[in-house]
Amino acid sequence: QVRLVESGGGLVQAGESLILSCTASGSIASTNTMGWYRQAPGKQRLLVAIYRYGVRLYGDFVKGRFTLSRDNAKNTIYLQMNSLKPEDTAVYYCNYQPTNDTSPHWGQGTQVTVSS
Question: What is the pLDDT at residue 100?
Fold first, then answer.
């Protein structure tokens, strides 16, 4: 059983920064297949940044503004979000998928709202 708990969301103005964190507990192997997705109302859940077997992969829309990091000892991943834009407004979800053919695990989500 896997539990993912996100924190760090909030309301910021355009151009400001936020740091999201996600701590995993339960039956997880490592942070090598963890990452972040986001979903705005009425839209699909999109990949933001993930570790794919330890390699960092980013969504094209990030454009160098976001940085994924981790603390393996704490089973925690982070998302440093700089130069936030109103279009970044969404619920950000932590994800863990141990293998390609298994169902993903999701956290409860944390709301990020960026005002103009």
Answer: 83
